[in-house]
Specification:
Reverse transcriptase domain-containing protein; transmembrane; 5-stranded antiparallel beta sheet; 6-stranded mixed beta sheet; Endo/exonu/phosph_ase_sf; alpha+beta; transmembrane helix; 1215 residues
Length: 1215
């Protein structure tokens, strides 16, 4: 069937075509429908109320056209193999039936007017798809073939029946040839039905019906087909009618050995205090009579009682309405039925009256749909707004998640270990179980040598005491609400709601398990769900992350033991480990790494870094090794027993698409993996040494000169759980650290991922060559460490680009559901923006050393987002200051400064042994700072922020000791700085507006005034345009001709004058461009050449017979010029009265007469400056009309030459 789908399914105003198709198919009781012209990008799936939609189309970058898909009833999903491969014209699925597999192909063929090349390509692909299906399996082709096969049964007896329609066209010929080759038959022509039930499309101009949508099957399968006919009542807003075929095929029964999961409890009703009180009362009454002795019996009774009473009080959690169409079904169905009736009448009789009735029915249905959608969004928006006003962040985001509608799921079949595609759902479940069984079934062992190298610590006997109710209460309070339950169906919300009643009963159970040294089996078992990592092949199981869902009560008990284990772990945790530790986060290690890079650049020391990735670190840790390690560090026996019981005999099962696999043992995988890395490096001296002093002023480097108060710190590794970064000043040192870690991982049965481990060098001459097991690691320029991008050149540009891209992605995902939702207030939108977008954009910004240009880049993005949320366009000419004022927000400059200063106070309040404080208040033990201004550092930016906020950089440490006071001080200072910045921007804008709009003084007349009417024009072109109209209107007849005559006379005179001037200039230039050669009369040959030019300098320097020399200022100027014509010499002194008229140099008085020969000057080009003597004669050798390349002035180097006399015209001169 043709769908009439839009290009996208996630628009807020989408009419929910998938929901309409779902409703129509369910009304007609269709099990599987093939869809054409879906026009949806890529491939994916979408689950509606009754059907699951699969589709395949062109890529998102291409034009949205064509596209095919399937709608499969949800009850058949278990027996359906999802589509694999396919194109925008052919898609195949596979159904498991009692008589064998059935293959269905959804087909959309090119139209009759399509190019022959596209038709040939389509039928070749269809032929290939049919050929790949085994002959012993059922085959059905369903689709819009755009072909008229006609009714010629005699010519095509094996392909056509006796009840065809019309005549055959070119596409029909192609299709029948294909059917004949593969022994297929067109079922539409084999059943005698009404003529109207054989056709599916009416031509818009001829109004004639044709048979274009066909269902084709093998000849031997035709016996399974009961009938094939058209249902014109299916109204999906398309000009094609639904063609339905009833086939006698029974689906294969799928037997589930596992029991169905318990129904989810509707904990959302807990906001009603009456319901909660009823739950507590009934729970107390039910538990008052329990008197079980063993831990297992007591747990079974407690588990069933909690679940039963919660289900009775809060009810079963039902599936939420995915959209407004389902929520408004009672109101929409009547108008849809009226529209369907009008549509059928128009199909029977396409008259004007029926068309008008159809239009009215469609308009009524559209109005009702808009009203229902509006009411739905009003209610949903009110719920989101109410949650926002009440501070219920979870409720607000649940409403936003519901607003996004049904989620589109990317589909891909799994692959076996050998790489073969698995299409059967039961075999896919077996593959999941096989994957996790292999992952968790291996029992890794730690070498005894590694364990013997760890010294025994005293046993902490106080950790064996029975847990108190206070410990249990804190563990319950630390549970995160809204999480999925384990197999028992008890959610964290129920435990927290029933805490007043459940606390003593749970405490008794915990103490009983503590003394018995074991927990019930239900608390150990895990239900594993798979989540795609959003990278890599979807068909590979290794690209999925397994999430273990455990019993909620079991997690509470494990958390009590975990708190006590933390006390043990603090004994051996190095300062460089920030994972699983209180008051530490990823920002600690990110800040440390960035500060280390800054210190090395500041003191000109190279830095080598290695970022090590461990393969499935938490899943492959040896349990036996961990338990032995706990004994080494002083774990008491009871605590060790309860920890061991959570891991021994543990079983798991995989849940995927509503199915559960068989249980399998889990023999590896723990929580306290980071304990093992604590012993990886031992006492290795390699690393980076720091000199730090915790007291004193941060901005006073002189405090580090005190040798007695300075502490030496060795920084080798930076750890956060299983993420490790190693640092050294030398390549050899880094190689030793990597070798030590590699050896330790092998001893503790861990594996380093060579592919994901990278090396980075900072200010190194050659790329580093670090290897593990003779495999060289990749050397990179940037690396994402704990979610933050670090670069070898310390530039923040790569990090900012990443953060901007991720924030823009979040902004785009919420655009249609939040920003464009007019039913949400601006306050709610801004809260969502602050929580979702800003938190993504400014992750780890506390450690940034930002330049102003980078802050401007972030601020521009911030303002663009606010303008979009507020609906402000650039045409509105609203300044940025007003945008921030309307949004009640601050600029990005203020946000960054506030985050930095608050983080600076946090680091200052850390203990003196903490690594972030040590590296902030310290420097490298070796290395020197270069002369000049250093590169921008973190503390420079902090000092800049303090000055802007009005905080004294010399006394901020005292104020930062009190966290609350420091936060208030920073907030007040940043607020004042933001006000000053806003005022300056407003004043600057006001000055600019006054400067642009300044009025012209009245005393200054406008230069563009019309001489005829006195009109003042703004520009010359305006005056010209106005003058044409003004003169045309005011001049009498004949005036135009007289004006033209005057203009022609003036133009003629100007042209004649221009010609005369050109001739005179040409003659003058010809004469002045003559070139003269100076020759030696004594036979010395040609000495030089010169060309008279309009310059005041002829010679640079001249020596006379009395030995005097005159160097002019022009001399010094020309020596500094790289002139292609050579240097210039100027004659400024003569001898005798005969040469008095040759005073032509640059020192000549302005009033002195010009030289008749060289006037106004003579320019001589030369290569070597000679010394000239006066008294010889120079004679004119020859003259050349055409300019030539200048010849050398002298062929000698510095030797004295004799220059004779030369003449020009009638002038003869002696030098």
């Amino acid at each position: 069937m043709r769908t009439g789908l839009s290009d996208s399914l996630d628009h807020i105003d989408d009419s929910r075509k998938t929901a309409i198709i779902d409703h129509e198919l369910d009304r007609l009781n269709v099990d599987i429908a093939a869809l054409q012209e879906t026009r949806l990008a890529d491939c994916g799936s979408l689950k509606e109320k009754n059907y699951t939609f699969f589709w395949h189309g062109k890529s998102a970058e291409e034009t949205r056209e064509h596209g095919v898909g399937f709608a499969v009833k949800n009850t058949l999903i278990a027996t359906t193999v999802p589509p694999t491969g396919g194109s925008e014209r052919i898609l195949a699925i596979r159904i498991s039936t009692s008589s064998g597999p059935a293959n269905l192909l959804s087909v959309y063929a090119p139209t009759l007017c399509s190019p022959p090349e596209s038709k040939d390509k389509f039928y070749e692909e269809l032929d290939t798809a049919i050929s790949t299906i085994p002959k012993n399996e059922h085959l059905f082709l369903l689709g819009d073939f755009n072909a008229r096969v006609g009714a010629d049964h005699e010519s095509w007896p094996d392909c056509l029946g006796h009840f065809g329609v019309g005549s055959m066209n070119e596409n029909g010929q192609r299709l029948l040839e294909l059917c004949c080759y593969h022994q297929l038959c067109i079922t539409n022509t084999f059943f005698q039905t009404k003529p109207l039930h054989r056709v599916s499309w009416r031509h818009p101009r001829s109004k004639r019906w044709h048979q274009l949508d066909l269902i084709i099957t093998r000849r031997e399968t035709l016996n399974f087909v009961h009938f094939t006919r058209t249902f014109h009542s299916a109204d999906c807003d398309t000009d094609h009618s639904l063609v339905l075929s009833k086939v006698k095929l029974q689906r294969r029964q799928v037997h589930h050995a596992k029991q169905k999961a318990r129904p989810r409890i509707n904990a959302s009703r807990s906001i009603n205090p009456t319901v909660t009180q009823l739950f507590l009362t009934s729970l107390d009454q039910a538990l008052s009579s329990s008197n079980q002795q063993s831990a297992v019996d007591k747990w079974n009774c407690l588990r069933d009682t909690i679940y039963d009473q919660a289900l009775a009080a809060y009810g079963k959690k039902v599936r939420k309405n995915a959209d407004w169409f389902e929520a408004s079904g009672a109101e929409m169905e009547p108008v849809i039925e009226v529209k369907r009736t009008a549509f059928l009448k128009y199909k029977d009789n396409p008259s004007t009256r029926n068309l008008e009735a159809l239009r009215k029915a469609r308009g009524k249905a559209q109005q009702t749909a808009r009203r229902c959608a509006n009411n739905y969004w009003l209610k949903l928006s009110s719920r989101i707004q109410a949650a926002s006003d009440a501070g219920d962040i979870r409720g607000m985001y649940e409403g936003i998640k519901q607003a996004t509608g049904p989620s589109i799921k990317k589909t891909a079949p799994l692959k076996s270990k050998s790489g073969e595609v698995i299409t059967d759902s039961s075999k896919q479940m077996e593959r999941w179980a096989e994957h996790y069984m292999e992952l968790y079934a291996t029992e890794n062992t730690v070498s005894e040598e590694a364990l013997n190298g760890i010294a025994n610590m005293p046993v902490m006997e106080e950790l064996d005491k029975d847990p108190t109710q206070e410990e249990l209460s804190k563990a319950i309070d630390s549970l995160a609400c809204g999480k999925a339950p384990g197999a028992d169906g008890i959610t964290p919300d129920i435990i927290q709601l029933g805490k007043p009643t459940l606390l003593p009963h749970l405490h008794d159970l915990l103490c009983l398990c503590w003394n018995e040294g074991a927990v019930p089996q239900d608390m150990r078992d895990a239900k594993i769900v798979t989540l795609y990592k959003n990278k890599g092949d979807r068909s590979d199981c290794n690209n999925y992350r397994g999430i273990s869902l455990l019993s909620t009560v079991g997690k509470v008990f494990a958390r009590v033991a975990l708190i006590r284990l933390q006390l043990l772990a603090e004994r051996v945790y190095p300062e460089t480990q920030c994972g699983f530790r209180a008051a530490r986060s990823t920002v600690d290690m990110i800040f440390t790494l960035r500060q280390l890079q800054e210190k090395c650049r500041e003191q000109r020391r190279p830095l080598y870094l290695a970022f090590v990735d461990l393969t499935k670190a938490f899943d492959l840790v040896s349990r036996d090794g961990l338990f032995k390690l706990l004994v080494k560090i002083g774990c008491p026996p009871k605590l060790l027993s309860i920890v061991t019981s959570f891991h021994n005999n543990m079983q798991g099962s995989v849940c995927c698409d509503g199915e559960t696999s068989e249980a399998f043992p889990i023999r590896s995988g723990v929580i306290f993996f980071s304990l093992l890395l604590s012993f990886a490096f031992g006492s290795s001296p390699e690393g980076v040494y720091l000199h730090s002093r915790a007291d004193g002023k941060l901005f006073n480097l002189a405090r580090l000169r005190s040798k007695t108060k300075v502490t030496s710190v060795l920084l080798r590794e930076m750890l956060f759980a299983d993420d490790a970064a190693l640092a050294s000043h030398t390549e050899t040192g880094l190689q030793q650290l990597v070798d030590r870690l590699s050896y330790a991982c092998k001893e503790f049965a861990l594996t380093i991922s060579i592919k994901k481990t990278h090396v980075m060098g900072q200010e190194v001459e050659t790329p580093s060559s670090i290897s593990i097991d003779n495999k060289t690691l990749d050397c990179v320029g940037t690396f994402t460490y704990l979610g933050s991008t670090v670069a070898s050149n310390l530039s923040l540009d790569a990090e900012l680009s990443t953060r901007l891209a991720r924030a823009a992605t979040v902004m785009a995902r919420l655009a249609k559901r939040v920003w464009s939702n007019k039913n949400l207030t601006v306050r709610t939108k801004l809260q969502v923006y602050q929580a979702c977008v800003i938190s993504t954009l400014l992750y780890s910004s506390e450690a940034w050393t930002t330049y102003t240009r980078q802050e401007k880049r972030l601020n521009s993005f911030h303002l663009r987002c606010l303008r979009r949320i507020l609906g402000i366009k650039w045409q509105d000419k609203v300044p940025n200051t007003e945008v921030l004022e309307r949004a009640h927000s601050t600029s990005m400059f203020a946000m960054l400064s506030q985050r930095r200063l608050r983080w600076l106070g946090h680091v200052h309040r850390m203990d003196s042994g903490r690594l972030p404080r040590a590296i902030l208040y310290g420097e490298l033990s070796s290395g020197s700072r270069p002369i000049g201004r250093p590169n921008l550092r973190f503390k420079d930016v902090c000092k800049r922020d303090m000055r802007q906020a009005g905080i004294d950089p010399n006394s901020w440490e005292e104020a930062a000791q009190d966290r609350s006071a420091w936060r208030q001080t920073v907030a007040a200072g940043i607020h004042r700085a933001e006000e000053r910045r806003t005022t300056l921007l407003q004043e600057k804008r006001q000055r600019r507006k006054l400067r642009v709009a300044a009025p012209t003084p009245e005393s200054v007349p406008s230069p563009f005034v019309c001489a005829n009417c006195g009109r003042d024009c703004h520009a010359r072109i305006g005056l010209l345009s106005h003058s044409r109209r003004c003169n045309k209107d005011d001049n009498p007849p004949g005036a135009v001709h007289r004006q033209l005559k005057v203009i022609i006379c003036v133009v003629s005179c100007l042209v004649g004058l221009s010609v005369i001037c050109a001739v005179v200039f040409y003659v003058y230039k010809k004469k002045r461009s003559k070139k003269y050669y100076i020759t030696d009369p004594n036979g010395g040959g040609q000495l030089a050449s010169y060309v008279p030019r309009y310059t005041q300098q002829a010679f640079d320097a001249a020596t006379f017979d009395d030995g005097s020399v005159d160097h002019t200022d022009a001399d010094e100027e020309d020596e500094n010029q790289d002139s292609p014509s050579g240097s210039l010499l100027s004659i400024s002194k003569t001898k005798g009265a005969e040469a008095s008229s040759l005073d032509c140099g640059s020192t000549r008085d302005e009033s002195s007469p010009a030289c008749p020969l060289l006037s106004p000057a003579t320019e001589v080009e030369k290569l070597v400056r000679p010394t000239m003597q006066v008294g010889s004669s120079v004679c004119l050798d020859k003259e050349v009309d055409e300019p030539a390349e200048m010849l050398p002035l002298l062929n000698g180097k510095g030797s004295q030459q004799t220059i004779g006399e030369y003449q020009e015209d009638d002038c003869e001169t002696k030098l």
